[in-house]
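[PROTEIN RECORD]
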Amino acid sequence: MPARRKPRAHRRGRTAAAAALPLLALTLSACGYGSDSDKDDNGKAKIAADAKKIEGLDQVKIGYFPNLTHGTALVGDQEGLFQKELGATKATYSQFNAGPSAIEALNSKSIDISWIGPSPAINGYTKSDGKNLRIIGGSASGGVKLVVNPKKIKSLDDVKGKKIATPQLGNTQDVAFLNWIKTKGWKVDAESGKGDVSVVRTDNKITPDAYKSGSIDGAWVPEPTASKLVSEGAKVLLDEADLWPDKKFVITNIIVRQEFLKEHPKVVEAVLRGAVKTNQFIEDNPEKAKAAANAKLKQHSGKALPANIIDPAWKSIQFINDPLAATLDTEAEHAVKAGLLEQPDLKGIYDLGPLNKVLEAAGEPAVEDAGLGVK
């Protein structure tokens, strides 16, 4: 789909956004190593005997992806930190491998709140003409790398002519890699992936095997896939964080059904409070938090990540409350420039009021919506 020149984000039209859907509907959020099925919590979540339901609500249904870029959700679930804030309103959890699955669950009311990547959030918002979701917080930055076969690629210029994997056509890492290719002055057809570089769309679950077989020469991927490849002999050629101001860019957001936010604002605040406290727990107890995330991953996938994979992967991700809204807008622009997306209208995609209320109570500074907030 060719890109068309449109006005800036606050003037972008709905018709253009709808045209982007066939491609972005395929989007995956980060890596997705676990199962799509619901999982019962067996971590430390306990409901106190004297606890009360918030707003009389029996449960809040929370979604996330079983991968490290959703570490806040993994740790908060495992350590019972969300449940602690929710009192007798029970937190139930569902896991998803793909962004469209999470958005579908949100639309069908199977979940109320979810951790999700930026591209699915943009797609879900524009597909509903801005009616089904809001981004209410950030969760993670970084954790994406270009890793390559050092025998074939020794410098960034050597990437030309090679076969590089991304998780899926139009996903967050695919867009980032296509944008980087453009900065090098190389040409690639965005849809086919053919050109000066061969962009090979490969599910992260099989990317390590593709690398071992020699069918790809490297990959632009999130953690822990990047560290899995390094364990197979690949080398990190570029950390995507180095391409962004202050080395920060959004990789995971928290979204909510707009109807749920309207009907249960105190429950949403409780989940956000749990997220803020979880991020503080991660900062104060990095090793314990990493172990908690790995324990939850083992529950979902049946196998924990070994130290040589989880240690470097965990270190490369920043767990934050700020949604880094300006970088979401930039990522959308990158998709437009790559020819994968027509200019979307992102005005109103954020409602950071509940988060800023929680942050103020915690003595933390407010976060900004880059002019893309709801009025």
Notes: The domain at 9-141+247-361 is CATH 3.40.190.10 (D-Maltodextrin-Binding Protein; domain 2). The chain has 15 helices and twelve strands. The CA atoms of residues 192 and 273 lie 43 Å apart.
